[in-house]
Amino acid sequence: MQQLETHKGTAKLQFERREGGGTLLIELAGDWLLEGRPPTFEAMASALAEEPKPAQAAYETSDLGEWDSSAISFLVQTSQQLRTRGIVEDRSGLPSGLQRLIALAQAVPERAGARATPKRENLLARIGAAGIAVGSGALEYLSFIGQSGVAFSRLLTGKARYRREDFLIALQACGTNALGIVALISFMVGAILAFMGAVQLQQFGASIYVADLVAIGMAREMGAMMTAIIMSGRTGAAFAAQLGSMKVTQEVDALSTMGISPFEYLVLPRMMALILMMPLLCVFSDVVGMLGGAAVGTGMLDVPLRSYYRETISAVSLTDFFGGLSKSAVYGGLIAMAGCLYGFKSGSSSSAVGDAATKAVVSGIVMIVVACGIFAVIFNVLHI
Amino acid sequence: MSNRVRAPGQPHIVVRDLTMAFGSFVLMRDLNFVVNHGDVFIIMGGSGCGKSTLLRHLVGLIEPAKGEIVYDGFNFTKAEPQQRELMLRKFGILYQSGALFSSLTLIENVALPLAEFTKLPPAQIREISALKLALVGLSGFEEYYPNQISGGMQKRAGLARAMALDPEILFFDEPSAGLDPISSRLLDDLILQLRDSLGTTIVVVTHELASIFTIGNNSVFLDPDTRTMITQGDPKDLRDHCPDLKVRRFLSRAAEQEIAEVSHG
Description:
The complex is a heterodimer. By secondary structure, chain A is of the alpha/beta class. Chain A has 2 domains: about 10-105, STAS domain (Transcription Regulator spoIIAA); about 160-380, no CATH class. Chain A has helices spanning about 40-50, 70-85, 95-105, 125-155, 165-175, 180-200, 210-250, 250-255, 260-300, 305-315, 320-345, 350-380, and strands at about 10-20, 25-30, 55-60, 65, 90. In chain A, α1 (about 40-50) runs parallel beside α2, α2 packs across α3 (about 95-105) and α9 (about 260-300) crosses α10. The longest helix of chain A has about 40 residues, at about 210-250. The termini of chain A are far apart. The relative contact order of chain A is 0.09. Chain B is globular. In chain B, α8 crosses α9. Chain B is α/β, with parallel strands linked by helices. In chain B, β1 (about 10-20) and β2 form a beta hairpin. A 6-stranded mixed sheet of chain B has the order 6-7-8-3-9-10, with helices on both faces. Chain B has a single domain (about 40-60, about 90-250), classed as Rossmann fold (3-Layer(aba) Sandwich). Helix content of chain B is about 40%, strand content about 25%. Chain B contains 10 helices and 10 strands. At the A-B interface, α3 and α8 of A face α2, α3 and α10 of B.
């Protein structure tokens, strides 16, 4: 076995003044390798700053072993420093490979204006920019609502172009496929409502009114609200991701250059499906939530199932029930809007699609809660 | 396939004073060129100089900052949306990635424009779509989904879809990008056959020299440094006789020598 002779130990850097200090001799020795510990540029900088200023610089590399990018990067920096300080550089002492690579690194001068300079703006400017962003975001929503209006009117006159299959697939995706998760969450919410009520109502011996609490709570608010939040996370995010990745693969471009409106073709079936399916899911959620309440009522509070059922039936009016349903249809529209809007706005990279999905869910949930508040005021004024 | 009477040599696409800009950043200005009927027109230039952006302007995906694009005397830039939609049906576009609809099979992809814009019965639409797939050498792959076939096959399927409505103009965005030399040669042959048999005007964005000389008979050269076009003409003539050194270098692949000169000098 023959040992490789190239190993010359760790990288070393030394300086020597010659010709009465007029020439700075830069000595590179040892192995200049990235995995070793090549000298940093600071030593070089301080040597260059030393007085008196040398007129020229030369290199001495007879003890230089292996070298890689660490040496090149060091020498390119050195060369730049020498030039800015007006010191003449003599590269003849370097190995020819290094000379060529340095020349290559300096062959194409930096393109003016190509370097991006990160700008730090003051607080006022940033507040202003945020305000403008809110305004333009609101405008986008408005124009999206306008476009949906146009698309729906074309749908009613039978002019809208979309594939029926897409509509049916969307119906399945945001209807039947969501039943499991909606059942689970609604059951838990019903049970939690019952628990919370039971703690207070038991003190008055009024356990039977747990049935009223759960029934009215689910029918008026919680059924629609919980379904909406589940669907926002499930379907809103899916819409945004689907449309976003279709933008990345230029499928949206392909549609519009075919003369097919991407809005009608992609948004319409999804929006219709969600607006249609949300009330149905809401009915399902109401019933399962009441079952959850009943499980707590009969199991823990010893209310007979029969009387729990009768109490529930007498507590909920049809108005409560349809109030919840109409809310859920509106929530469905909001979720579909957030999902599709952010999907269309998505940039064309994989992280942009992820951002679009996140934004769709967050703004979907915010809109649901705001809409819920507005509904509460309206229902209160109308005495519903 | 159609065999409408067309006049070769008559101007088909006229671009006047086109300026492309994103906000205040001007990408290219003062573009003026003419594409004639039956041309295979190459948009060439270095990477990132705005070739694909020019194509997106030509098909109306981006509005020009200034200037106009005229098809057969019909001003596309100033057209009303309905008229524009009619124009769009005369275009076939092959996107860089193919842009096939990933939720549809190949034959459904090709059938989509036919189903939307013709009143043909479904059986006939299927036959025509199968024919288009056969023309690009994809018989037997009708029921495959785009993610089940190779990149070259996706491009050919995209071409079949672009040809679905017998377009008067076919646009190709980097057709040979990501293809091996033989597939890209086959695509070139296909482009020439389309031109010769149907008289379709073809606009190609590419920087593949082999393709440029094989298929192109007219071209425009975009220069990122001056932010405008340098010249228009047959790429073979430009290689040998263009007064501009940059164009001759590009077409004779002289960039490497140029770098070598700098590092030695």
